[in-house]
Amino acid sequence: MLSLSRCNNINDLRSLAKRRLPRSMFHYIDGGADDEVTLRRNTDAFDEYEIQPRFLRPVDKIDTTVTLFGKKLDVPFFIAPTGMSRLFHHTKENAVARAAAKFGTAYSLSTLGTASLEEIAKETDGPKIFQIYILKDRELTQEFVDRCKAANYDVLCLTVDVPLAGNRERDKVTGMTMPPRFTMKSLFSFFTHLNWSFNLLLHPDFRLANVVHRVDALGKGAMGLIEYVNGQFDRTVTWDDAARLIQQWGGPFVIKGVLTAEDAKRAREIGATALMISNHG
Question: Domain span at residue 272?
């Protein structure tokens, strides 16, 4: 049986995740929107790259370090933000942050993480990025900025490709909707993935840790938390709002989700440090 220690590549990791996770959880992280054409293109694009070795030069000492946002990384990549990691493993974002620190790279925490930004700050002394939205509750957005400064985060990353959620057809089939739609098939999948279900019972505390205090103040439960977050996405956000957030932060600032050259130029004009190319919807 394939174990994590025997995974040699991304395909092995995908196969292991499919085996260990209930059906709805696996397809939530594996799937894309509509017919998943863009999802396939994302993968296929990497097949177009060639690594062309150069010979007759000393390679006894290889340096893979890069400097990004003024921070030295031991490898030329870092961990992108992923929301609700507790759904997939009970060690949630904390374990990923520790792994990033172990390998000398940066970690990005999602606003919709199940660990708070303060928790993650305690897990790693490496570079830390916080992925943020400009929410309808502008006071909460400002609160995130203040908390990131207090916790010594290095970079703020604004996600902009959220005016409308993607039409994720796999989730409709598996019942991974809000609220969740349980079927006999999905319940059977939970029952046959005992390790995942057992850990859910042992570690039942699922919460969107960075916003839960707002929901608690409103006296709402778990589903109220989801409803609150979904209601916070603002379809009226403009470049002026992004520019104000850059000024409020005052440090390295990434805009995530820009997909055109025109928008890339505009991002640079308002003071963005970098772009994160993403079509994650």
Answer: 20-35+62-276
